[in-house]
Known about the structure:
The chain is mainly alpha-helical. It has helices spanning about 1-20, 25-50, 50-70, 120-130, 135-150, 175-180, 190-205, 210-230, and strands at about 85, 90-95, 100-105. It folds into two domains: about 1-70, no CATH class; about 85-230, Orthogonal Bundle (Helix Hairpins), CATH 1.10.287.110.
Amino acid sequence: xxxxxxxxxxxxxxxxxxxxxxxxxxxxxxxxxxxxxxxxxxxxxxxxxxxxxxxxxxxxxxxxxxxxxxxxxxxxxxxxxxxxxxxxxxxxxxxxxxxxxxxxxxxxxxxxxxxxxxxxxxxxxxxxxxxxxxxxxxxxxxxxxxxxxxxxxxxxxxxxxxxxxxxxxxxxxxxxxxxxxxxxxxxxxxxxxxxxxxxxxxxxxxxxxxxxxxxxxxxxxxxxxxxxxxx
Length: 231
């Protein structure tokens, strides 16, 4: 029992120094993930040392926190599933063909390297305000917010939605980017292009509650590959 308590103290001290050396946004994400486990562990020690009046509530809070975190995370993608990648100046977004799950990685700024699924809603909204001037990045992030935080628009200033930016241009899309968007390897046949396009467009089409921006990207990628193949 004494060794168990000493172990928890060493872990707590280690976590403290890790947090001190970690950027604020990553520390918040780390605490969100590790906090529930720490509460459960401390509560378990208190229960074992006959302090259940304090330990049981801590375990209950830790379990509730853990369930809440899992409920807020995007659904996990299949390990072998095909993915599409859409990249902007500030974000790289992935869309799983099989599940429709969406996740992304921040490429610039104070949150560079963070996965969107690791950030809470307030952090994602903060990122949105930071990259708002880049219309493609803002549109990608709006797609993620619409899917996983559907009430987010009520928490930002009026007039800050994607429609205010105007349509994004796709004239400069190259074949490499088009293949990434459709989740295909270079040299894919026209049949493979059509199949991938149909599978993706079902999940992101605005009529199905999807993203107009992603639908436009997917349509543009199909057109780039088919237009050049037909020449």
